[in-house]
Amino acid sequence: MMGVPEMLDIQIDEKRNVILARPEGPLPASDFEGLGKTIDDYIAQHKRMPGLVVLPKGVPHWEGLAALRAHFDVVRKHAAILPRVAVVTDATGLSFMPGIANVFVRARLRHFDVKDQDKAITWAGSTEVEPEGYRMLAGFPDNVIALEALGEVTSRDYEDVLIPLVRDKEKAHGKLRLVMVLGPDFDGYSAGAIWDDARLGLTHWRSFERVALVTDIGWITRSVKLFAPLMPGEVAVFPGSGLEAAKAWISAEGA
């Protein structure tokens, strides 16, 4: 793209509805200003929001305070409207992910390996509505919050769905119970969602007298079992096929 410094190479793929940004090394203020203008021009011309695909080389960083200010200007204006952000790196580039997640906390953010660059571009530019976030499960007592996590759970899902639901149920019932299903359609948590998960635990964890986790994901199962003795309420882990057993346990009288 003419006029854009090579430290942040910006390309537009109109056919796939994405803007590709390749940051490398120290990034000057003009890079971020150029990215912001590219996003604005694209929206004005096409009347739709593009996806953003970030392909970092190494670990990019700011070139002075002016670049830092320009970065935050772009973030403040665009982070809330970009629907999807894909970050394409190898394993050594994963250190770049937390910073991206903190910037684009309202977007759907996913990491793709370098070999899956085409998949990343297709996903970022898609306008299809995927089943992502939380789906309420029916058939539980009113003091039970029963949810299935789909796709990648982001900070937006916590802020818009889970936290308000916990607050409302807490006012109505005091002590609550939680069923969380992490099935094959669950892709993981964004960094922003992990922070919100920790914040939810610190502020509301004592409100849950029982928590049931339904999943076959090994590392999550092991982590929950490890920390279960430290939790104030009862915690039980059920296999992915054990939703009915979890329902019976969470609905039983007593705690």
Structural features, described:
The chain is an alpha/beta fold and 255 residues long. It has 2 domains: 8-125, Rossmann fold (3-Layer(aba) Sandwich), CATH 3.40.50; 133-251, 2-Layer Sandwich (Transcription Regulator spoIIAA), CATH 3.30.750. The protein has helices at residues 29-46, 65-78, 97-103, 117-125, 155-173, 191-204, 218-227, 243-251, and strands spanning 8-13, 18-27, 51-54, 57-62, 84-88, 108-112, 133-136, 144-153, 176-189, 208-215, 234-238. The strands form 2 sheets. Strands 1, 2, 3, 4, 5 and 6 form a 6-stranded mixed sheet that branches. The protein has a 5-stranded mixed sheet with strand order 7-8-9-10-11, with helices on both faces. Helix 1 (29-46) runs parallel beside helix 2 and helix 5 (155-173) packs parallel to helix 6. The longest helix has 19 residues, at 155-173. The radius of gyration is 21 Å and the shape is elongated. The termini are far apart.
From the structure above, extract its key features:
30% strand; alpha/beta; 2 domains; 6-stranded mixed sheet; 255 residues; 5-stranded mixed sheet; single chain; 8 helices; disordered N terminus
Task: Tell the overall outline.
Answer: elongated
Tally of separate domains? 2
CATH topology of the largest domain: Transcription Regulator spoIIAA
* Annotation field: number of helices: 8
Low-confidence stretches: 1-5
What Rg is obtained from the alpha carbons, in whole angstroms?
21 Å
Strand segment tally: 11
Fraction in helix? 25-40%
Average pLDDT figure: 77
CATH class of the largest domain, named: Alpha Beta
Task: Tell me what portion of residues adopts beta-strand conformation.
Answer: 25-35%
